[in-house]
Amino acid sequence: MASVHESLYFNPMMTNGVVHANVFGIKDWVTPYKIAVLVLLNEMGRTGEAAVSLMERRRLNQLLLPLLQGPDITLTKLYKLIEESCPQLANSVQIRIKLMAEGELKDMEQFFDDLSDSFSGTEPEVHKTSVVGLFLRHMILAYSKLSFSQVFKLYTALQQYFQNGEKKTVEDADMELTSREEGERKMEKEELDVSIREEEVSCSGPLSQKQAEFFLSQQASLLKNDETKALPPASLQKELNNLLKFNPDFAEAHYLSYLNNLRVQDVFSSTHSLLHYFDRLILTGAESKSNGEEGYGRSLRYAALNLAALHCRFGHYQQAELALQEAIRIAQESNDHVCLQHCLSWLYVLGQKRSDSYVLLEHSVKKAVHFGLPYLASLGIQSLVQQRAFAGKTANKLMDALKDSDLLHWKHSLSELIDISIAQKTAIWRLYGRSTMALQQAQMLLSMNSLESVNAGVQQNNTESFAVALCHLAELHAEQGCFAAASEVLKHLKERFPPNSQHAQLWMLCDQKIQFDRAMHDGKYHLADSLVTGITALHSTEGVYSSCTTGSESNDRGTQAFTEIIDSLSENQEHRNGDQCPAVCGRAVLAILLPYHCTARAPAGAGPLQGVPATVLGL
């Protein structure tokens, strides 16, 4: 396969072995896999006794788009996909390819000559402007541009492609004759070998422009909506590196590499890929073409803004502030109000510990509404609701504010924010002690279907909102003593969000908290104390609260433990991130410390609360 790609398309794009950046100048080229797809299309268009039924044609039409846009696959896998939709057609395709591969070169020539007949007649089988019609025209045009030596190498590759498929078919038939146990072990090995060979085939040469765009869009959508169905980080990075090897200036591949590195918390590689994305965006002229002379500056300011968001994600707040200041400066010079609104939102995220942060947030919401940015406006409203909830505002006012944000969600079909809003309502009802309402909101989210396009047979996406709702559901069952039900919910969470996924930390913390609360209720304080370390590693504020809870029940810890807790709270208030709420935790700690402070265990006038700033306790 590699020799075919090299002979057909490397020569026009290589000088002294160096691949040029215009590798996607050629829209499509002919490969043995695409010849097999052309045979499938030709067989589908046949009429008479061998005609495909309506239901089978419908299933085949659903199969065609990924076959046309996806990367090349082995002939064996192609047969299996066709057989699942129409067994009779799979047999016809297999016979047709066999006759072509075992025949002569003129058979392949005649096949491409006959493809043009699909567009002839008053009622052609295929319309020229349809998806299938465009694919056929691209293949016919690409084949007609080949020299004789290139046609011969293509036919040789087709024969090798067919022989590999036949060899795999014979191996599968031999395995059926062996014992079940030996057959299963051999099948696992063969499946592993097939996956490796498929990877070698897909990586043997550059993807066409459509194949690359389809692959990147598919993986990006899976990373956003259902990470478990995306390629593993190592496999995805290998595919991206191969793609960038043939086209180093493919900006979208660098951005997907940035998202992939975020999955494994690789700050160096994430920064490297993000900077390369904006560098290539400028070099290729994509921004300047769509935005005129402002394209260059637009890339620079959004590069600085994304760099600030990246540093904030990893807790590098000083670097984030510097990058954000740079983005604000460039945006002000260009009078880019949209970019300034994004910067204002991130200013609030970085400045939540300040007392006047709510003023900044209110201003951000008003400006977002003024400039017609519903996504930013809704996020601002939800952040404002969260801040007011921590400040102890009444629940009815918070729900009224969320109702206004819900109007924006449904008006603009912001599916992701609809899920976030319901998850936040669940958290607010739990914060105010309304477990029934919290349970209702969690179940409402879990029973909703996604507004975004997902895979066939799937109505929901495995996003953070669903993970949060399931965690609330597990904790609500545990609070009522239904630990078996909570365990079942956690089991579902572990299956839906594997330990290596980016949202796995949510159920890990939930599991630790449930075990901690159960140990405290059972009076197993030493067991609860051993869980504090794990909770602290996942969430520092929850760790402070758990440590204080165990300290209040242990006579051997005394005043020193509470002094350490207060110091930890003070440190969290100075260096906290967006997911912590020291005011709420401070009040909870105060509720635990007061009984201890008033008992004989604390010396009169010298309790652990003496000299503690009120701001530390959220008062």
From TrEMBL:
Pfam families: ANAPC5, Apc5_N. The keyword DNA damage does not apply. Residues 254-353, 458-490 form the Anaphase-promoting complex subunit domain. Keywords: Cell cycle, Cell division, Cytoplasm, Cytoskeleton, Mitosis, Nucleus, Phosphoprotein, Repeat, TPR repeat, Ubl conjugation pathway. Pathway: Protein modification; protein ubiquitination. InterPro entries: Apc5 (IPR037679), Apc5_dom (IPR026000), Apc5_N (IPR048968), TPR-like_helical_dom_sf (IPR011990). GO terms for biological process: anaphase-promoting complex-dependent catabolic process; cell division; positive regulation of mitotic metaphase/anaphase transition; protein K11-linked ubiquitination. The keyword Transmembrane helix does not apply. One of its GO terms (cellular component) is spindle. Residues 30-168 form the Anaphase-promoting complex subunit 5 N-terminal domain. It is found in: Cytoplasm, Cytoskeleton, Spindle; Nucleus. It comes from the Eukaryota. Gene3D superfamilies: Tetratricopeptide repeat domain. PANTHER family: ANAPHASE-PROMOTING COMPLEX SUBUNIT 5. Component of the anaphase promoting complex/cyclosome (APC/C), a cell cycle-regulated E3 ubiquitin ligase that controls progression through mitosis and the G1 phase of the cell cycle. The APC/C complex acts by mediating ubiquitination and subsequent degradation of target proteins: it mainly mediates the formation of 'Lys-11'-linked polyubiquitin chains and, to a lower extent, the formation of 'Lys-48'- and 'Lys-63'-linked polyubiquitin chains. The APC/C complex catalyzes assembly of branched 'Lys-11'-/'Lys-48'-linked branched ubiquitin chains on target proteins. Belongs to the APC5 family. This is Anaphase-promoting complex subunit 5.
